[in-house]
Amino acid sequence: MTIRPLVIIPDSKLRLVSEPVQEITSEIRRLADDMLETMYDAPGVGLAAIQIGIPVRMVTMDVSKTEDERQPMVLINPEILWASEEKRVYEEGCLSIPEYYEEVERPDRVRFRYMNLEGATIEQDADGLLATCVQHEIDHLNGVLFIDYLSKLKRDRVVTKFKKAAKREAGA
Ligand code: ZN
Q1: Could you give the CA distance from residue 23 to residue 4 in angstroms, rounded to a whole number?
Q2: CATH class (in words) of the domain with range 12-171
Q3: Is 94 assigned a ligand-binding role in the annotation?
Q4: Distance 120 CA to ligand 1 centre (A)
Q5: Is 74 known to sit in a ligand binding site?
Q6: What's the whole-model pTM score?
Q7: Is 80 exposed, middle or buried (0-12, 13-18, 19+ CB in 10 A)?
Q8: pLDDT (tens digit, 9 = 90+) per residue, 84-119?
């Protein structure tokens, strides 16, 4: 397993729409391992493949509270089947937007479907952190970031900050 470098805003890769996984190959299994390793190392509760620069529809998540009881999930081609009318506000962060947290309103409960690494199709209901996380990660597969739900003022402020940091890093 390898910890891969994270893709950070304003990298335009984060705006790509990822392609469906056609077949679960050894390469896909290795990618899942690397994504989990990278996510735990960060540390984060969710990671989409595009966040390590691979535009395929794959997500890893672990919303368990303790390190001794890890519950790694690998979601292949995940999709939201249903979302509740009721909304919930949760303070979100993103490994591609380091150390920035802001409240986002999303549906409180969702039903989602995905394929696991064994090729089985799974339907699951979620609320709480899992519901927020799965919506956030599926957004990544469509090139959407949580800052897109904020006011233009807030979004511009954070994007500008990271653009400046990227420029400094490039020595411009
Ligand atoms: Zn994210």
Answers
A1: 22
A2: alpha beta
A3: yes
A4: 25
A5: no
A6: 0.95
A7: middle
A8: 999 999 999 999 999 999 999 999 999 999 999 999
